[in-house]
Amino acid sequence: MNACRSPESAIEFKKYYQLRYQVLRQPWHQPLGSEQDELEDRSIHRMIINHHGEVLAVGRLEAINEQVGQIRYMAVAPQAQGQGLGQEIISHLEQQAKAIGLKYIKLNARELAVSFYAKLGYQQQGFVYQLFDDINHYAMTKVLK
Known about the structure:
Blueprint: E1 3-5, H1 10-24, E2 44-49, E3 55-63, E4 68-76, H2 85-99, E5 104-110, H3 114-119, E6 123-131, E7 135-143
Parallel strand pairs: 4-5
Antiparallel strand pairs: 1-2, 2-3, 3-4, 5-7, 6-7
């Protein structure tokens, strides 16, 4: 049985960051550590972990201000894709955003993920930037209800 929750130990955080690195940075030959930033301690982290202790999906929510949050670092392990785990992480992060009083969520979606977020109610706002000279990102927003 899978559980969606925050990492609860240093070992779980290590696995959490390792999945972020493996999915979001390593394929583009980025250095270990580039999967983290200065907002880790002020953010809400969610992961899906199975009964074997394997982290299958991760995501992070940070409050930009008292009304707006941003979801970042969404990653699903390749062997776990297509099972609804990304949607589950988003749902949990949106619940947390509502619980702390946020009204809007924004994110920068990789081009291949735009349709995924659109299915979850996010509206595309336009091109934002290109990461690693290869990955186009598009701003997307959602009003929380």
